[in-house]
Write a structure and sequence with these properties.
The chain has 9 helices and 8 strands. By secondary structure, the protein is an alpha/beta fold. Helix 1 crosses helix 9 and helix 4 packs parallel to helix 5. The structure holds adenosine-5'-triphosphate and magnesium ion. The site of magnesium ion (MG) has 6 residues, from helix 1. This is P-loop NTPase. Keywords: ATP-binding, Nucleotide-binding. Pfam families: ParA.
Length: 253
């Protein structure tokens, strides 16, 4: 292990109020990058379209909905024995994946179970990294509250910025601090009206940590064992690398 890069019992979420902006891709890349130095539990809370099992090309044996079936009313921390059957190791990497079934209707996990789950996982991993979507805004808001750092992913469209502004206002209404939030600006389209970092910061009142370039081959990395972070020739490599360095610094306690 590289002793200069060390964090422990840390929670970080990637959140976006608009779909299809690269949240899952970036969560996968961050899991790979952080796993070089620390143990990572990747939790797929993007329940309207859980993508991590596809991105890592693995098939989880059990999904998280069943974790609580024998735990009626019991909110005490889950043991490793409780958790382990649901965690699928990613071959060759210091990553365990906790996945969920896709949901169409109501979110299957109540907030108190999510708190129980995340705080339990935290005890066994250096980093709990969470991929979310807006399947439940309440859940996303709770994850912001539970996280040491929360990364708000946006593309360069008005729609994405507006949805994220709405989400940020919801945090204010719920009196959830977003001082620990940062923006990742991801350019997912070639033709771009990319807002400048200053414009995004002014619109969202959240600092931009990194701006990622458009790359028409990202899908190739999403459908193979390849990683943008590990590929020195991928145009996203330099910005992902500096993002990881900055996050390590921010997460060091
Ligand atoms: N920087 C980029 N340049 C070009 N394409 C990108 C970039 N980042 C992501 N993409 C592409 O955008 C699409 C959406 O990515 P991804 O599934 O990660 O987004 P998401 O926000 O998790 O979406 P969902 O709402 O379905 O959960 C994918 O096809 C991915 O290849
Ligand atoms: Mg996703």
């Amino acid at each position: 292990m590289n002793s200069e890069k060390y964090i422990s019992h840390t929670v970080m979420s990637l959140i976006s109020a608009k779909g299809g902006v690269g949240t899952s891709t970036l969560t996968k890349e961050l899991a790979i990058a952080f796993s070089k130095d620390v143990s990572v539990c990747l939790v797929d809370m993007a329940l309207s379209c859980p993508a991590q099992e596809t991105l890592f090309r693995i098939l989880p044996t059990r999904t998280m909905e069943y974790l609580f079936k024998h735990k009626t009313g019991d909110l005490s921390p889950l043991s490793w024995q409780d958790l382990e059957p649901y965690l699928t190791p990613v071959p060759g990497r210091n990553i365990h994946l906790l996945s969920a079934k896709q949901v169409k209707g109501a979110y299957p996990l109540p907030l108190n179970r999510i708190i129980q789950l995340i705080s339990s996982l935290k005890a066994y991993f250096d980093l709990v990294l969470i991929d979310t979507d807006m399947a439940s805004t309440d859940v996303s808001a709770k994850l912001v509250e539970l996280s040491d750092r929360a990364l708000l992913v946006t593309d360069d469209t008005e729609c994405s910025i507006k949805n994220n502004q709405r989400f940020r206002r919801l945090l204010t209404q719920k009196q959830i601090s977003y001082d620990h939030m940062h923006v990742i600006a991801n350019q997912i389209r070639k033709e771009s009206q990319m807002y400048s970092d200053q414009e995004i910061e002014a619109l969202l009142h959240i600092p931009v940590l990194v701006t990622l370039p458009y790359y028409d081959q990202v899908w190739k990395y999403n459908n193979s064992y390849l990683s943008l972070y590990e590929d020195p020739v991928s145009p996203l490599q330099p910005s992902l690398s500096s993002l990881v360095d900055r996050l390590f610094k921010l997460l060091e306690k």
